[in-house]
Amino acid sequence: MIAIHVGQLARKLGVHRNTVTNWINSGKLKATATVGKKYLIDKNVFRIFCREYGISENILQELIGNETVPSKGDLPFTQNLNFNSKEVTMSAKPIGSVLVVGGGIAGMQATLDLANSGYFVHLVEKSSGIGGAMAQLDKTFPTNDCAM
Amino acid sequence: MSEVVDVSGEVGNFVVKVKKNPRYIDMEKCIACGLCAQKCPRKVDDEFNLGLNQRTSAYIKYGQSVPLKYAIDGETCIYLKRGKCKACEKFCPTSAINFEDQEEIVDLNVGAVILSPGFKPFDPSGFDFYGYGKIPDVVTSLEYERLLSSGGPCMGHLVRPSDHREPKSIAWIQCVGSRNTNRCENGYCSSVCCMYAIKEALVTAEHIAGEGLKQSIFYMDIRSHGKDFDRFYESAKAKGVRFVKARPHTIEAGQDNCGVTMRYAQEDGQVMIEHFDMAVLSIGLEPTTDVKQLADIFKLDLNQYRFAKTSDFSPACSNRPGVYVAGAFQTPKAIPRAVTEASTAAVEATTALIRSRGELTQQKIYPSERSIANEEVRIGVFICSCGINISGIINVDEVARYARSLPHVVHVENNLFSCSADTQEMMAKKIVEHSLNRIIIAACTPRTHEALFQETLQETGLNPYLVEMANIRNQNAWVHQREPEMATAKAKDQVRMAIAKAALSVPIERTKVNVIPKALVIGGGVAGMQTALSLADQNFETVLLEKSDRLGGNAWKVNTTDQGEAIRPYLESLIKRVETHSNIQVLKNASVTSAKGSVGNFSGTVQVNGGQREIAYGVAVLAIGGRESRPEEYLFGQDPRVITHLDLDAMLRDDPASLKKAQSIVFIQCVGSRDERRPYCSRICCTHSVKAVIHLKGLNPKMNVYVLYRDIRTYGEREDLYRKARDLGVLFISYGPERKPAVSLDGKDLTVKTYDPILRMPISIAVDHVVLAAAMEANDSHELTELYKCAANADGFLNEAHPKLRPVDMSVDGLFVAGLCNYPKPLNETIAQAKAAAARAAVILSQTEMTLDAIKSFVTDKCDGCALCLDVCPYRAIKLENYQAANGQGHFRIATDKALCKGCGLCSATCPKGGVYVHGFTMDQLRAQVVAALEDVA
Amino acid sequence: MAEKFEPVILGFLCNWCAYAGGDLAGVGRLQYPANMRAVRVMCSGMVHPDLVLEAFNRGADGVIMMG
Prior knowledge:
The complex is a heterotrimer of chains A (148), B (938) and C (67). Chain A folds into 2 domains: 2-66, Orthogonal Bundle (Arc Repressor Mutant, subunit A); 97-146, no CATH class. Helices cover 31% and strands 16% of the residues of chain A. Chain A has 5 helices and 7 strands, in the order βααββααβαβββ. Chain A has helices at residues 6-13, 17-26, 43-52, 58-63, 105-116; strands at 2-5, 32-33, 38-41, 97-101, 120-124, 139-140, 145-146. In chain A, the strands form 3 sheets. In chain A, strands 1-3-2 form a 3-stranded antiparallel beta sheet. Chain A is elongated and about 65 Å long. Mean pLDDT of chain A is 71; it is low at 66-89. Helices cover 26% and strands 25% of the residues of chain B. In chain B, the strands form 16 sheets. In chain B, strands 10-17-11-12-13 form a 5-stranded parallel beta sheet. In chain B, strands 27-26-25-31-42 form a 5-stranded parallel beta sheet. In chain B, strands 33-40-34-35-36 form a 5-stranded parallel beta sheet. In chain B, helix 19 (719-727) links the parallel strand 35 (704-709) and strand 36 (731-734). The mean pLDDT of chain B is 92. With 67 residues, chain C is an alpha/beta fold. Chain C contains 2 helices and 3 strands. Chain C has helices at residues 18-27, 49-57, and strands at residues 9-14, 36-41, 62-66. In chain C, strand 1 (9-14), helix 1 and strand 2 (36-41) form a beta-alpha-beta unit. Chain C starts with 8 loop residues before the first strand and ends with a strand. The chains are: A alpha+beta (148), B alpha/beta (938), C alpha/beta (67). Strand 4 (97-101) of chain A pairs parallel with strand 8 of chain B, so a sheet runs across the interface.
C-alpha cells in the first residue's frame, strides 16, 4: 500500500494535481481516500497503471522508499511441467487470469484454488447454477455425508 | 448460463468468446423469494430430478443453488414462446424480471483455460432387454439418488414409481453402459458405479423401516479399489446386502406392471428367475454430448472413448499448451480424484502464469476501527421484510414497535430488503448518525448473510463482530406460514435474544499470522519431487528431504505406466530438474527430528547425515511413500521361482530371455491384500498383472498364462488392458478367500492348485513361475504423525482432511499429503496428487499473512490450570503453561493456539470454572440468550 | 385448562449442521410448530451443562440439542 497526497503524486509524475484527481475520480487510478487527505493506492494496481500509461516503474520504487518490491517472474518461463510436450516460451507477460469451463465439483475446486492463489478466474457454467452432478447425489460414501 | 463458442491466442494470452444466454431475471435484483416460480403457470419436467417431477418455467435449479437466483427457461416460457402471460413479472416484488434480456457474446482475455465439462450419465433406453422407459419400476441409479434425496421428488420418503409403495426388494444391475463393447461403445469401466450401488443399498436401509428389506447387487467384479472402500463393501455384506456374480440378461414387468421379473444365469450356469419390487440400473459415465464441439473449439485430442487425451506424466495437461483438463472429462473418476485433479489443473495454470500472479486481483481496504471501549451500548435494529417473504407472515411493524421498547435500543427501522446495496449504504449512514455500536439484523440466516453485514460495519469503522442476526425468515416466516401470530411472537423473542447477546458483544480481533513463503517436502520419490518442483516453479523456496541417498523411490523399480509410457526417462529428467532447480534444496539421508508451530509458521530441526539443522517453513507436504510387502505364503522366499510384481519387472528389464522360455506362468492376485491383516485393496496390482501378462504374451504368444483373482479391478480405461489380455488367451480364474489357491513343490516341479468355479472342479497347473501380487504397504509414518499431530488410518495410510472434498489437505492446517503414503495408487494419480498438493500449498504460500477467523477460544483469569480441557480439545490447540499471576503467585494455566483452535468450544463446556470461553459465544452471551428466550415463561 | 398446552422448548443448534438444516427447512418450506427458540452455537459440544440447567430453571419445558 502506498499512502500519498494528490499533490505529491502529481509532482512525482510531472502532471497537474487536477489530472491526478481526475484519474482517481474517473476510476482510471484505483485509490481509496483515507485520513489527512491522503489516498491509499495498491502497489500492484499502481504498477499496472504505470505500465498502461507508460510511466516508469522506478517511481513506484521511490514512492515506497526503502520497502522492496518482491521481484516477480525472475525465472525464465518454461512450461516445464509438461514432460512430453515441447517447451513453450513466452516473451510477453502472460495474463493473470484463467477461464474455467464447467461448474461441477472439479471446476469449482480449480476455481477456488486459482482465486485463492492470486489469479482472477472466469467460471463458465452452462446451466443456471453451479454444483454439477454431485449436487444431484443424495449422499456420498463412506461417511454417507450429505453430498451438498 | 454461458458457453464457450470460440478461442484464439496461445498460452499466456487467449481470447475466449463466451456466449451468455439470457436468464430473463436480473441477478442483482432477484432475492430468491420464489414468487415467480409459484405464479408461473407453465409446468415442465425437472431435469435436476431427471424428469421424475415437474418444475415451472421460472425456476431455480435446486434449493441450495449457487447463485441462489431464479432463471426463466426461454425454451418453455409461455410469454417468450407465445407473447402472453408475464405472470412472474406482475408478482416479482423487486422487478427483477427482464424479458428484454438478450443473448450476449463477451470476449474474455485469459492466460490459461481449465476444461471440466463433466460427464453425461449413460442413457439405457437403447437396451430393450432392461425395459428402461417401459417398465415403471426400472430406474437409473441417478434417478434412484433423487428418489432417496430429501430434496428430491419424494421428499426423502422412498417409494417406487409404479404404485408409490415402499419397495421391499431391490436389485441393482452393475455395468450398464460400462465394460460393454457389444451393445454400446463403452469398453471402459466407469469406476464409480460399484461404490455408489453399495452406498445406495445401505442408504435404502435407512429409508425403509421394519424387517424384510432385501437389497441384491448383480455384478461382474466389485471394484472397491479406493481408500477404505473395501471396508465399506465388507460392511455392506455384513449388513445383509446380497452380492450376486451375474449379469442379468432380461428384465420384464411384474404383475400389474408393478415390480420386475428378472432372469439371470448363476456362475454354475443355472438359470434363475427372481422377482423384485424395483430394479436400479447402475449406469456408467459418458463424455458429454458436446465434448466433440468443445474439443474442436480448443483443438484438443480425444481418445477413442472421447475422453481428453493426456500423458500419465502430466495428467492435467491437454495437447494444447495453456489448456488444462480436470474431472470426468479426462477419464471416468470418483469425486476425490476429480477434486484432486482440479487442483492439479490449477497448479499447471498458475505455473504457466506465475509472472502475473496477483496482477488482476485486488485486496479491499477498510477504514481503521473505531474503539467502543468507553461507549455505552447503543443498539440499532434493522428488521427486514424481504419483499413479502417475512412481512407476509410476520407483523414486522409490531416487531419493530416491540424492539423499540427494549433496553439499549436507540434506533429501529424496517427495510424492504436489508441486503440490497442501497440499504447497506443507508445502514452505514444510520450507524454514524446515531453512533450505533451494536447492530441487530432481523432477516434471513447468518450463514449466508452475516459476512455481508459484517462488511458494512467494517466500512463504517465498526468491528465486524458487533453485528448479530435474528433469523426470522428461514427459521420463522418460512416454516410457520400457517401460524402468523405464533410467528410474530417468535420473531419478537428472536429479536430480544439477539439484543441480549449483542449487548454483551465486544470487538474481536481477527488474528493474523505471517506466512513463511517456504515449503518442506518430506520424501524424495516421484510424489515428493513433483510437489517440490511445482512449488519451486512458482517461485517458492522448497526443501526436499529424502531419507536414503538416492531420489526416485519406487519409480526405479517399475517399467511403464498404465498407458505404457516408459518411466525411466521421465524419472531421470525429473531428478535432474529437481537437483538443478535454484529454488530447491535437496537434503539426502535426512529426516525431520522436531517440529512446532502451525500453518504459515512451522519451525523445527532436521537431521542431515547425522548433523542437526534448523529450518522454518510455511507448509509441509508429506510424501513418504510406500512399498511392496514381502509375502508370507505361496512358498515365497522358499523357491526362487515364486516372485513378486517388482521382481517380475526387474526380470523383464534385465533378463527377458529367461522369461521367454517359460511355458506356463501363474499370477496370484490379492496376496496380502483384502485379508484380515490388510483389509484394503492395493489398487494397482490388477492393472499391473494384466499389463505384465500382455507383455509376456508378446514375448512368447504360446506361453500359458493364468491369473487367479478375486475381483479384477482394472478401473477406468485400464479395462481395455483386461479385455486385451483375455483376447490374447490369458485364462482368468476366480477364487474366493475361503478357497485360496495352493502352491506346492513336488520334487523340482512347481505346481499351483486351485478350484475352478465354472468347471466346478479343482485344477492343477504345472508352472515355471508364480507371480504374486503382493500388497502395497505405507511406509512407517509413526514419527511424523507424532511430530505434526496428524493421523494415519488403521492400515497406516496418512489421512486426508475429508475423503471427498479435501483429498490432499491433512486435518492439520498447512500439512498436505501426496503419493503412496496416502493410499496405493498408480504413477499418474501420484503425479496428479503431488501437483495438487503443490496447488493447495501455494494457496497458503502466496499470501504474506493469513487472517484467521476470529471465533476462537480465549483464556480468562479464572483458569487455574486443572487441565480438564486438554484432553477434550479435538484440535490439540490447548497446552499447559507456567503462569505468574498478578499477585506474584505462580500456577499452571492453559494457553490456546489461535491457529489451531477452530472455536468449537468443547473446552468451555468442559471447564467447571469459566476459565476458557469462545469469542462471540461466551458463557455470558449464551446465558443471556437463554434468559431472554425464557423471559415470558412464568 | 382453557388454553391448549404449548410447551416452550429451547434449542441449541450447531452452526454447521442443525442450524444449516433449520435454514434448509425454510428454503424447502417445511412447516413445524413454532414452539422452539433457537440458540446458535459453533458446536453442540460448546453447550455447558449449566446452560441446560439454567433453561429448565427458568421454565423451559424441554431442551433440544441438535448437532
